[in-house]
Queue: 4 jobs
Job 1
Amino acid sequence: MQKSRMETLTNNLFNIELLLESGGTVLWLILLSSVLMWTLIIERYMFVYVMHPKQVKQLLQSWQQRTERHSWYAQKIRQGMISESSASLHQHLMAIKTLIVALPMLGLLGTVDGMIQTFDVLTVFGTGNARGMAGGISVALITTMGGLLAALSGMYFSTQLEQRVARAEEQIADGLRRH
């Protein structure tokens, strides 16, 4: 039983390595960009669901400790607290969105690279080297798929994070308004 799992894992790793070799340099760029995007997404989820509630609790305690909360000065402090919290919530969201937009463009770059490889084979060998042409077309298709797949996988979670951040901002403003 254990041996078959190891064989399966080894085969899967080999297939991934083969796919990355087939996609060329651009697919490695897509992989690195995707890893960066997912690192940022995971960090934001950890912040929004773990760290931020603790910060909000401290923020509300700080506001409640104020004896005077209705003057112009106190309202400016309140707005500053809300802005500071909002800025921390929005950190890295623009980088995530940028990577989501850049990943399909990297896939398109791979498509162009693959087609250039195909035309190079056509220039040297004419239409007689189908295997050579298939290599360039393969690069074009694999990188396009990689860029689109990576972008689509991040798009859902990015949208969900933005919605959660908007709700958290409303909750902070309401919490400070009530107290």
Job 2
Amino acid sequence: MTVQAGPQPLAQERWQHRPLVLAIPDTDRADYLTFRQQMDDHRAGMADRDMVVYVVTPETARRNGEPLSEPQRRALVDGLAVRPAEQAEFILIGKDGTEKNRGPFPPSIDALFEQIDAMPMRQRH
């Protein structure tokens, strides 16, 4: 799947960052709070891999903690075909704008790092 242009905020990331999109019902979930702590603990590794984090809920969307507009939230939901109110999942997007991995939330940070480290663009880094 390739991310579309327009109000789609992921379009700005192409060739610059590897977005990790977390689609969750709400940010008060214990598993989200635990995962957020893991991301904080691995901040240097995430930065080294040019990762940015989008958190999408039924009501809000944020990029690295900064709020996005409702049209941008809707573009994320529609463009990635996620249903944050119904299913918690993650989507890893590569620098080329294509979906690299999708699965139930929370993902394993170590597994994400291994997958990114095996990507051709990362190996040329």
Job 3
Amino acid sequence: MELNRVMSQERAYLIGMARTSKTKADIEMSLEELAELTRSAGAKVDASVVQVRPPDSKYYIGKGLVERIKEEITANGTNVVIFDDPLSPAQQRNLENAFEVKVIDRSILILNIFAQHARTAEAKLQVELAQLEYMLPRLTGAWTHFSRLGGGIGTRGPGETQLETDRRQVRTKIASLKKKLEKLGTQREVQRKGRQNLFKVSLIGYTNAGKSTLFNQLTRANVRTANQLFTTLDSTTRVMSQGYPDKIIFTDTVGFIKKLPHQLVASFKSTLDEVTFADLLLHVVDVSDENCQEKINQTDLVLDEIGAGTVDVILIFNKIDRLADPLRMPFCDRQSFHISALKEQNLGPLREELTARLQRFSANRHKVC
């Protein structure tokens, strides 16, 4: 499987599974996000379907739907099928044999997008580690045709020998990448210790919520922004003193998303630690997104998963300039600000709050000293 290949000019059929009719609407919403991910990876979405039933152990979806999709992709020239949920290695092989086209799931799609956007050495190492850990249990299928050549029950064919060689090489590579990332993680820890007496603010939130745009406005930095998913993979840190009575450390972080592959959470641990050790989180939300509440909840779940659930949070409802009805703001029982980072609207009150927070932080620090 060539994990780094850009999916340009590929045509995709998307599949979601709802276990009950009550969850179908949620799965349809998730499939819309999968379509956005697919387009971000460079592919065209031909069709999509949500099936309501318990997962099938062999094909994940029902055999009848497998046959129907086979007819549709053959007629339309579709060349990749993407599932919204993780597939087992066996299910993936069975589906590829049935469809006779490439079959991937949401996890590998996200990994593909991360691979396209990785620019620094650390980000590339993190993505490669996640890809290899995803690929390791799926190596079996690559050598099945060779294993049929040798021996009977209890014997090892040449395919098995090659499979073990491949597995050993992948495990060796994984160990090497982990050592390199551990070294970079140690460097990050040293840098964090050097900043422990400074007020640390991390910008977090769902991907494409506008974190990097707000980061640029608050710090006058020039972090790359774009209207697409996962533009930022590397945490960017700026020490700011201009306009504040003392220094603030601002950190821009990788965006979160529903069903984020656990391999990515693990490999990006040193990057995500910037969030865990922050004094304040600015949770940036795209207020123009009709599903913004669901994305707030999803980000909160990721924060809990990485151990940052107890860090103080301010909600930043961004992109108010895109609201058709400015009066239709979401209800919020937490401290929040409504802004447009792109248009530089309502940033003054947010800066004032950051100054007040910094002053309280500095006063408490001096009391301790």
Job 4
Amino acid sequence: MTNKFRLPSIPGTTPKNIRFPNDIIDQVNGVIQGTNISFSKFVIEATRVALESLKEGDTADVK
């Protein structure tokens, strides 16, 4: 079986400006330091996890 080279499908994006508390920025920067993960990639993945958690009915902390 031959694997064919395929370019990954990259979803469309829209720039959004949001404000983060400085302590959150510091914590994220500390976690991603020394990796090839950008701040944006981290926030996108964290948002996906939060959204998936909400789909599973974990809304105890949502106000």
